[in-house]
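Possible regression after last week's pipeline update?

I re-ran a chain I had predicted before the update to compare outputs. Posting the input and the new output here so someone can diff against the archived version. Not blocking, just want to make sure nothing changed silently.
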Amino acid sequence: MISTNEFKTGQTIVHEGNLYSVIEFMHVKPGKGAAFVRTKLRNLRTGSVTDYTFNAGTKIERAQIDKIMMQYLYTENNTYIFMNNENYEQIEIPFAQVERELNYIFEGMSVEVMFYNNTEILGVSLPDKVVLEVRETVPGVKGDTKTNAMKDAIMQTGLLVKVPMFIEEGEKIIVNTNDGSYVSRDK
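New output (post-update):
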């Protein structure tokens, strides 16, 4: 059990039978009345975001989420197969649980798979940035390097990213997984 006064961004809690991750929190001390904590919580099972207000000092159960490094192998009938890198055990994750993450993962890539109580699969945890290869883009025009002009590029995963004009097909770039934006070339 933890107090709402101890909330941190990214912390996982169990509230009203659901698993949540704390996205934002703010301690409020009004001139009149008791202090409270205003939060924005992401449901780890559904992905929905909820605003919730707790009384300051309320005890909440902490959720133990385990992250195991696994390799994405392949897709079969709308399920995605991942393999544990240590014991080679394979698990299947349905499309609905990894829909957003599929824009950033490719066959052979290692990612963290989240488990609740070592049995319930919650989904995939992405790093903040990933390296993806540009599969398709129009060639850059000579002299377009001084402006901040951007062009569309399709990555190896099918993700569409706006990239600078100097990026060519076959190059590897770093992409931000929070918003799908171009960060830089991969060195």
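Follow-up from reviewer: compared with the archived run. The mean pLDDT is 87. Marking as no regression found.
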